[in-house]
Amino acid sequence: MANNYYEATGVLILDRVTPVISALFGAFNLDADYPGNGRAFIATIAETNDPQWSDVLDGLTALSTKLNISPGDEPETTIDVVLEALARLFHADQDEDLENLIEHHPFEGNADLEALFLIASCFNDGHNLVAIQFEGCWYCSKPRLFEFGGHTCFISREITLFGNSAQARELATDLHSALREGDLTIAAARITLEAARLLAGVQDQNSRQELRQRIAEGLLQNQD
Taking every pair of C-alpha atoms in the chain, what is the biggest distance, in angstroms? Predict the structure, then answer.
């Protein structure tokens, strides 16, 4: 029998760790002092911590209590109710992105950093979170084929990018197959799809469109 594991470490880039940051990221083994210089350590360690939305709910509920906020009269407090109460306090109840998150996110299972970043950005109690950098790997207790790999993400207001080693292998496999068959149309489409994935991470629509134009011009100007 083989066991599979996942571990990751990263940093929050911010001014300081505040009660909001502690509530949202406390389950990630948050360390406000390391590595320092505007960065706070976060991690997911196999068989040690596995941050869940239920952990985030506990943190936000405790924060609401400290702030003397009543989430509501429901017998069982849910995370969307707590988020709505805190949104009113932080004057973020009209934020469209937050409203969409509360309405459509299931808030079940593993807590995802992209959603946590959005919530933290809306509930700014002086932390001034700028970005999240996170890098992880999965591995197996036995040397099974393709049971090892890594991934990384960078999350900010300006750019959000995710990537992993499986994507690189799949891209190379697709291009290799297309080139062996002499099908440059498929190869070009695959490269275009990858470029579109990168551009999709640019949050500002105008910047994304301008970048698309400049990339096209740059490729035409730098032909071998």
Answer: 68
- Going by C-alpha positions, the residue among 189, 131, 183, 194 that lies closest to residue 157 is 131
Q: Which residues contact 182 (CB under 8 A, 6 or more apart)?
A: none
CA distance 153 to 164: 9
Number of residues assigned to the chain: 224
Give the tens place of pLDDT for each residue, 52-84.
999 999 999 999 999 998 765 555 689 999 999
- Rounded CA-CA distance 194/188 in Å is 10
Q: For residue 39, what is the enclosing H or E element?
A: strand 39-44
Beta pairing partners, 35:
40
Give the span between the Cα atoms of 189 and 168, in whole angstroms: 16
On the question of a cis peptide bond just before residue 35, with omega within 30 degrees of 0, the verdict is yes
pTM > 0.85: yes
74, with CB counted inside 10 A (0-12, 13-18, 19+), is exposed
